[in-house]
Amino acid sequence: MRVAVLGATGRTGSRLTTLALGAQHDVVAYARRPDAITPQPGLAVVGGELDDLDGMTSALSGCDAVVVALGPKVSQAHAPIMQTAMPTVIAAARAAGVRRIVVLSALGVGETFANTRYPYRFGCRTFLAGNFRDHLAGESLLEDSGLEWTTLHPGPLGDGAATPKPTIIEATPDYAMPRAPRTQRSDVAAAMLRMLDDPTTYGKRMLITSARQMP
Prior knowledge:
This protein has one domain: Rossmann fold (3-Layer(aba) Sandwich), CATH 3.40.50. Helix content is 30%, strand content 21%.
């Protein structure tokens, strides 16, 4: 499989890139800072901006799937990253003939707010609210895109080792995630890679946490 990764310089996107290469996939890393990515066999690095339709379409040409692992820092609550990127990604995917897209979101974005509990829910309504509005504005475009999309919604991300059996489940309204749904980036990256060729996740919002589920 040839996979395009947006956000390959980030802590989750870089892990996914490493996993994909280790699984013998070819990877195209589309990045605003291509010099920040170390060249590796099987990895093509393409520099470009998130609103450059021609450049992104060229990068996605020949790819089987695209992974979006973008997102502002909490300190950049008003940065319109997903609002800027997603219209371009969708248009570029259509133009390049790429149907499969997996997008990294967050627990509490949009309809997944119903899956949160306190104290995490408080954060969704306060210091995370700006980031989540940006995510929702971009991700809401997927529903009518005609693409085979999946969004993955982890809790607060950590840099620990992968866990043996992270909780991964569809975001149905009656399911409550743990009160402190800590999630390792390694688990998120592995889940996104597996979902690329998992048609059971098409058109779904998937929850993930590395935390043990508690009553």
